[in-house]
Amino acid sequence: MKPLASDTAMVLAAGLGKRMRPLTATQPKPLVRVAGKSLIDHALDKLGNAGVTKAVVNAHYMADALEGHLKVRKIAPAVTLSDERELLLETGGGMVRAADLLPDPFFCLNSDNIWLDGPQDVFAELSQAWDAERMDALLLMVPHTRALNYRGEGDFHLDPNGRVSRRRQGRVAPFIYTGIQLVSKRLLRDAPEGAFSTNILWSRAIEEGRLYGISHQGLWFEVGEPAAIRPTEEWLTRA
């Protein structure tokens, strides 16, 4: 088995969490608790258990509360804060702001992710499939049957070689992006200044044939709004 492709992950935790209101009226979304644990601790614990030793966490909305929570963690991974208090930079801008703190490549994941691993953990899954010569980013996808609480139309298609293409307007795509990826710093080259979505960088990578994906073999939970919390907790209790 190949070793992990990186010892570092960026955890995106700066968003406003509007869909999770009213719970996010008094706390940032990463601190919302599911099954007795904050969302960001679910993500960080998964990283630590997989052997990822360092995490860069960006913060904007209620950053003081998030920073205070992270300071009391005493277990791996070791956390460095990327401060976005002055301006919310979105996903792409957040990665660019933190680039000097990140190796090449690095894992990147949303802080509100909850998932159950398949035969191996997701960071090992991505590492096994990683090819730095061909890939600017490798996205972890999940089919609809393993995306619990999800009610959307999907995000992407994968060709037989694992290359990614987008869902066509008005059509259903077979794969949902889990919010977890392995990223080459080549993806960040010539990036826009300020706030922007990673979608801009992905579109360029798709055009160049350098955006790839793999299908997650475990379960993934959409936890975007308060109504999703209880069914997610029930699933985790049964797991």
Automatic annotation (TrEMBL):
Keywords: Nucleotidyltransferase, Transferase. Gene3D superfamilies: Spore Coat Polysaccharide Biosynthesis Protein SpsA, Chain A. InterPro entries: GlmU-like, NTP_transferase_dom, Nucleotide-diphossugar_trans. GO terms for molecular function: nucleotidyltransferase activity. It comes from the Bacteria. This is Mannose-1-phosphate guanylyltransferase. Residues 9-150 form the Nucleotidyl transferase domain.
